[in-house]
Amino acid sequence: DLVAPDDRGRRVYEGRGQLMPVAVSNDGSGILVKRLVTNLDADLLLLDVAENDVRLLNPRTDEAWIYDARFAANRNEVLVLTNEGSDFVRLIRLSLDSATSQPIVESEWDIEQFAVAETDGSIAYVVNRDGYSDLRLLKPDDREGAVVSALNGGVVESMSWSPDGQRLAVAWSGPATPSSIYLVDRNGTAK
Length: 191
Prior knowledge:
By secondary structure, the chain is mostly beta strands. It contains no helices and 15 strands. A 4-stranded antiparallel β-sheet has the order 1-2-3-4, with no helix packed on it. Strands 5-6-7-8 form a 4-stranded antiparallel β-sheet, with no helix packed on it. It is globular. It starts with 17 loop residues before the first strand and ends in a 6-residue tail after the last strand.
């Protein structure tokens, strides 16, 4: 239930289960929250701070896990990394207006992480292929991302887009290479 502010700061939600904020909208009016139901099941909630409202974004009857979620660049959608409706973890687009979802990226391997460029909604995502990371860059109108081939044979540990959306910083390590930071441009060239 939404609750009133107290002297420890403004509490915007209190509820059952373990609650984990995963994203805050740029204007601070919305918060995406993962609510753990079991060790194999999680709900995705949208807390509307301005309206004092909470909405379940992924109603379903089967167990599904939420690995990550982010507001899309257009703010009318949420991008969700989940195994809902699939044997593999995939990236889906969830419309906040219609409450419908559609796959953005599906693979025969799990998708482990993603990052969204705020400028145009381009997506960098990582596919776990036999224990190694395939980093891919997906432009807004594409259906399959281009592989960043310079970073193969290792693992992407984390990544973050630059504010202008032109570069992606990637933490990468390989079996014979220490942990390194690479800068990848929009064309997939790693430096």
